Amino acid sequence: MAVPERVMTNDDISTFVETTNDWIVARTGIRERRIASESESTMTLGAKAALAALQMGNLHASLVDLIVCATSTPECVFPSTASLIQSEIGADNAGAFDLSAACSGFVYALQMASQSIRTGAIDTALVIGAETMSRVLDWSDRGTCILFGDGAGAVLLQRSEQPGGVLSAILRSEGKNAKFLGIPNFGSHDLELHHEAIDGHKLGKMYMDGQEVFKFATRVLSDGIKRAATDAGVRLSDIRLIVPHQANLRIIDAAARQLGFDKSMFYTNLDRYGNTSAASIPLALVEAEREGRIKRGDHVAFIGFGGGLTWAASVVQWTGAGAVPRRMGPLQQLEQLQASAASSLRRLRRRYGSLLNRIRPEEGRVDRLRRRMDKIEDLE
């Protein structure tokens, strides 16, 4: 996982939006979130998380066959953020593409990668959820700006003859309800003229009908877990931990009641990171594993829901770290050394740039947001 160093608390937000820490905590469970600095981006966070996953799996990037990056905040329209990550980490033999399914994106990407392995097309894949949601927020909209944060998480998948891994995945979409959550972007001209979901919303900024999304999420969360367990051939009682999309604590509590589970069955860290969209499940997964909440052989359920409106659920049997060895000839070894050197040089240049930014301190983001809100009030 990788998260920005900068922390924005609820009290920070209350300095430029009419809200309070108690109000946000009571309605969402969120206390703070991470905000990317000028030198951080979806790519840099995703690359850092990917390298950490490779290190945990003791595998060199040159042996990765496929990189799938789930994101709603790509580095640019194209090339894909996955391609930029592929270059950054030195995975020179990998194909790479982005997947857009909003907050469900990580589970979608996990299924795409696991199916590619099952067909025999590839042996090894990196699945990344990476977001810089702070850059698509309307910071004057209290309904959205209090919810989201930045971060990235990654998992490594490999072919193995041992039982375990991804046992089931259910992917669903309710496009008829797309109007409740979105980010209008370039190419939306026709939609802006003819579609009520776009009319009146800021280009490149998120909008959300919170009540409708809440109703959707509470409806699909428990149902999705039940379906994924059935498809995996396991009972609900066999599931050791549920790692849900970290959107709102009230949604998770409602799902626990519907399933008859204690709240402790659901791993949550949204109080510290907020809603990181496609990054939220892998971020929570990493921390759950570090805390010893997941052991080898455990059945773990994932459930994501978000823009589309999409939802996706999966059950995996945890196999833990430890890559399957792959033999390399002399040419492959040379290519690995070259890729490592090039990747290290790129990262060194980036760190040098970050160091310069620290030597020349810039004003904090909270201060800039406060001044921006003051300008808006002056205009009004």
Description:
The protein is an alpha/beta fold. It has one domain (7-379): Peroxisomal Thiolase, Chain A, domain 1 (3-Layer(aba) Sandwich). It is 41% helix and 18% strand. The protein contains 13 helices and 12 strands. Strands 4-3-5-6 form a 4-stranded mixed β-sheet, sandwiched between helices. Helix 4 links the parallel strand 3 (66-70) and strand 4. Helix 8 packs across helix 9. The protein is globular and about 60 Å long. Residues 192-198 have low confidence and may be disordered.
Following the backbone from N to C, one meets helices and strands in this order, namely: EHHEHEHEHEHEEEHEHEHHHEEHH
Termini separation (Å)? 42 Å
Counting DSSP E segments of at least 2 residues, the number of strands comes to: 12
Spatial order of the strands in the main sheet?
A: 4-3-5-6
CATH architecture: 3-Layer(aba) Sandwich
How would you name the CATH homologous superfamily? Thiolase/Chalcone synthase
